[in-house]
Write a structure and sequence with these properties.
Largest sheet: 6 strands, mixed
Order of helices and strands: HEHEEHEHEHEHEHEHEE
Strand order of the largest sheet: 5-4-6-7-8-10
Number of domains: 2
CATH class of the largest domain: Alpha Beta
Distance between the termini: 51 Å
Structural class: alpha/beta
CATH topology of the largest domain: Rossmann fold
CATH architecture of the largest domain: 3-Layer(aba) Sandwich
Number of strands: 10
Low-confidence stretches: none
Mean pLDDT: 90
CATH superfamily of the largest domain: Response regulator
């Protein structure tokens, strides 16, 4: 077993998805950040591949993930119910419409539209990487640009933790002035101040489903790629308290 972190570097990701040639890798579980979807689809024809972060069509690669669109709608419903109306989004990836960031952004937009709210372009910030540093910069930029923003949906906990720091440096009270919600239920989010509201995947289910899918592929299953939906729950903590 080989575990590697690519840091979103395209050359490193190409090596990873191709099974690290020369290392005798039988199959790959991969969460891409920078790979071109067409290249991913091509590689999946000869490398047993299960994807955690990029949805492909017409490919034998399986996809294991929570329902990103539905969970984003759930996050926005929670914020609307708590009195928020000017809700921003950090983490869109418009150049990668099949990536989790943009699927979550679409769910965010759809739920706002159902509530009769049209999200302005200035409410949304795209992210090349889901890092704390990028979250801090982008959230601060949104709040400076839209002074009346009262919530930010972040496409990952790392972005959200960075966003909390960026807003704190501006003197903005997270959970009171601006609510923040992330995804992944990372350990760090439980120790922030305030604690971070987040979408929590069922990690045991995800791990078992991912390994089952990869083993089937290694053993020769060449059926069209399957989508496996992982259960999730929205955990409400201090970062998305009711608006005042």
């Amino acid at each position: 077993m080989l575990i590697d972190e690519t840091g979103g570097r395209p050359a490193h990701e190409r090596e990873a998805v191709e099974g690290y040639p020369g290392h005798g890798i039988d199959g790959v579980i991969f969460s891409p950040l920078a790979m071109d979807p067409q290249h991913l689809a091509a590689v999946s024809n000869y490398t047993p591949l299960v994807l955690l972060g990029e949805h492909l069509t017409n490919s034998p690669a399986d996809y294991v993930a929570i329902d990103n669109h539905a969970s984003a709608r759930e996050v926005v419903r929670h914020l609307l119910t708590s009195g928020r109306r000017r809700i921003g989004f950090v983490g869109g990836q418009p150049r990668r419409p099949t990536a989790v960031g943009d699927i979550r952004r679409q769910g965010y937009r759809d739920q706002l539209a159902d509530a009769g709210i049209t999200p302005r372009v200035g409410w949304q910030a795209h992210a090349e990487r889901f890092t704390r540093e990028e979250g801090a910069v982008l959230a601060a930029r949104l709040v400076r640009r839209i002074r009346t923003l009262d919530a930010i949906v972040c496409a990952s906990d790392l972005l959200a933790i960075g966003a909390m720091r960026g807003l704190a440096e501006l003197g903005v009270s997270v959970g009171t002035d601006v609510a923040i919600v992330g995804w992944d239920d990372t350990v760090d989010g439980r120790y922030c101040s305030p604690t971070l509201s987040t979408v929590s995947p069922d990690l045991d289910f995800l791990a078992n489903a991912t390994l089952d899918a990869l083993i089937r592929r290694i053993e020769g299953d060449r059926a069209p790629g399957r989508d496996v939906v992982v259960p999730h729950q929205l955990i409400i903590r201090g970062s998305s308290g009711a608006a005042h």
